[in-house]
Amino acid sequence: SLAVLQALEDGLKKAAADPSVKAVMICGENGKFSAGADIRGFSSPKRHGAALGPIVSLIESSEKPVVAAIEGVALGGGLEVALGCHYRVAHVKARMGLPEVTIGLLPGAEGTQRLPRLIGVPAALDMITTGKHIPATEALKLGLVDEIVEENTTEAAIRLANKV
């Protein structure tokens, strides 16, 4: 939603300006990272406010480490947010994917560029063109996530942020 995008942008800018902040952790709520955009918004008149692509670029360009704590699902734009992060920690039961293709859309926030950089072109093409969701264990093998945990994902992401 626009509210989530605006909160991400505001939080990132606030963290960047605060010298006491050493790292940023991005997580979802209620056991889910993000299922991506609400497709009903695609047919609405031109929106004003934050857009996903620039927010993901803002995350990626942060001088402070940004760690994603992925629980539940990171799909579509949600995965693109995680791809912009410098590090990704996922719960062992998490699933990731870019399912937009199943409704005739391509990822719109540069996921088609960031995903191949992390996992290589063949694996990225498979995910992008099929829309399949992969489990955290496969994401770790591919290099999509840096760590998987069975415990509290946000605490693990904070530990990783403190380490880096």
Automatic annotation (TrEMBL):
It comes from the Eukaryota. InterPro entries: ClpP/crotonase-like_dom_sf, Enoyl-CoA_hyd/isom_CS, Enoyl-CoA_hydra/iso. CDD domains: crotonase-like. PROSITE patterns: ENOYL_COA_HYDRATASE. SUPFAM superfamilies: ClpP/crotonase. Keywords: Isomerase, Lyase, Multifunctional enzyme. Gene3D superfamilies: 2-enoyl-CoA Hydratase, Chain A, domain 1. GO terms for cellular component: peroxisome. It catalyses: a (3Z)-enoyl-CoA = a 4-saturated (2E)-enoyl-CoA; (3S)-hydroxyhexanoyl-CoA = (2E)-hexenoyl-CoA + H2O; (2E)-hexadecenedioyl-CoA + H2O = (3S)-hydroxyhexadecanedioyl-CoA; (3E,5Z)-octadienoyl-CoA = (2E,5Z)-octadienoyl-CoA. GO terms for molecular function: (3S)-3-hydroxyacyl-CoA dehydrogenase (NAD+) activity; delta(3)-delta(2)-enoyl-CoA isomerase activity; enoyl-CoA hydratase activity. GO terms for biological process: fatty acid beta-oxidation. PANTHER family: 3-HYDROXYACYL-COA DEHYROGENASE, PEROXISOMAL BIFUNCTIONAL ENZYME. Belongs to the enoyl-CoA hydratase/isomerase family. This is Peroxisomal bifunctional enzyme. It comes from Oriolus oriolus (Eurasian golden oriole). The gene is Ehhadh_0.
